[in-house]
Write a structure and sequence with these properties.
Layout lengths: L15 H23 L12 H18 L3 H18 L7 H23 L5 H11 L7 H28 L2 H12 L3 H12 L2 H22 L1 H16 L9 H28 L8 H26 L5 H12 L1 H16 L13 H25 L4 H11 L8
């Protein structure tokens, strides 16, 4: 660092509520991602394709996951990422932390690319790094403007979904069938080929992982980036108005949490039932997708209110501690959950269980990983200042090794 420039030291102030909500979000994200580890990626849009697992109790677990988790916790994590940008950079335009933010996003991008192309195609870090770089300037806007622009971007994103559905309805049958076999309901031999690839060794499946990663990144950019940026803006606004830092009355958090969670869950449940009723037919799922898209936003806000209410009680501090620790180590826990799931479901050096575990077996994996995260996070932070990947990220950002031991 240039000795003529003022030293920039990491900020020491933390908001427990932010850590707890981030920890809850990272747990919920894995509950959705597990389906993409336990089965080929087709299962994300059409789990009924794997009928043996889906029909033998799997429909219940899929419906539960869709109603309670799908889109809700990635929404919360996007909101938290936006709030974190304001906390890290500040709201002033001339700030010495802007170059740090850019380096921070650069290294997050690198972590995401390695995660995406070497381990698992479902990475979100690359999209977050790009969105975080693009949206940083908006931190100076007022809360009202951030909310309005955020909602507009989320609505624009929904319009992309609607255009896709309209395009499917306008296609000639032969073209529609080709897309269906490629992306929605491939023939059994193609599914078996995909399973065989992921049951093979690390280097044998690497080209397939890279191809799926590239496709997933394109899909994220086309169909999720406006929503992600919009949610980050809303997170900035919620931080500015004190929602995320417990400046609202606890009764308001409780009432809003119960009402919004109930409304959102009702819409999400209807969405799950619609998917099952139409047997996941590609040209019939749009009403369910629409309900899930909007209800997940309402439900995520309800969840956030309930977590804030949870954080207002001093008597629950010990109960919150594991979640706060999980949130302080969100990057490490996100990557650790991938490493564990790859070790169980992909081939050597993993166990190669992909496609052979029931949906309730996937739920057991989720429970095991949750327990691991909630136990190891506070133990690690009792000895060290940061999680292992947080320490590496911070050291690369600041250009020198940061102190790790307490």
């Amino acid at each position: 660092m240039d000795s003529t420039q003022p030293a920039i030291v990491p900020r020491k102030d933390r908001h427990e509520s932010l850590d707890v909500l981030r920890g809850v979000a990272i747990l919920g994200i894995f509950a959705v991602n597990i389906l993409a580890f336990g089965f080929p990626w087709y299962a994300l849009s059409n789990p009924a394709l794997f009928s043996d697992a889906f029909n033998n109790g799997g429909a219940f677990w899929w419906s539960l996951s869709t109603t309670l988790f799908q889109f809700k916790f990635i929404t919360l994590f996007s909101v938290m990422f936006g709030a974190g940008l304001v906390l890290f950079i500040g709201e002033d335009k001339p700030t010495p932390r802007t170059p740090l933010h850019r380096r921070r996003m650069f290294w997050l991008f690198i972590f995401g690319m390695l995660h995406n192309y070497l381990l698992w195609y479902g990475d979100i870090l690359v999209a977050y790094a790009i969105a975080g770089f693009l949206v940083a300037g908006a931190r100076r806007w007022g809360a009202a403007l951030l909310i309005v622009v955020g909602i507009l971007l989320i609505t624009l994103n929904f319009g992309v979904f609607a255009l896709q559905d309209f395009g499917f309805g306008s296609m000639p049958p032969e073209m529609l069938n080709e897309i269906k076999q490629e992306m929605w309901a491939p023939p059994p031999e193609k599914v078996e080929e995909e399973l065989a690839v992921y049951r093979s060794g690390f280097f044998e499946r690497l080209p397939n992982t890279a191809m799926n990663a590239m496709m997933a990144q394109v899909m994220q950019g086309l169909f999720m980036m406006p929503r992600t940026i919009g949610l980050m803006m809303i997170g900035m606004a919620l931080f500015k108005i004190g929602f995320l830092t417990l400046r609202w009355r606890s009764i308001h958090y409780l009432v809003l949490g119960v009402v919004f969670t109930a409304i959102g869950a009702a819409g999400s449940y209807w969405s799950a039932e619609h998917f099952i009723a139409v047997n996941f037919a590609m040209i019939k799922v749009f009403p369910g997708q629409s309900a899930l898209y909007w209800s997940s936003l309402v439900q995520a806000y309800g969840y956030a209110c309930l977590v804030m209410f949870f954080c207002t009680s001093d008597g629950l501090r010990l109960l919150r501690a594991p979640f706060a620790a999980a949130g302080r180590m969100a990057l490490s826990n996100y990557l650790a959950s991938t490493i564990i799931a790859v070790g169980v479901y992909y081939g050597p050096p993993g166990l190669g269980k992909i496609g052979s575990v029931s949906f309730d077996g996937l739920a057991l994996t989720v429970g095991g990983v949750w327990l691991f995260i909630l136990v190891w996070s506070p133990i690690w932070l009792a000895l060290f200042r940061y999680g292992p990947f947080e320490w590496l990220w911070r050291s690369l950002t600041y250009g020198k090794a940061q102190p790790l031991l307490k």
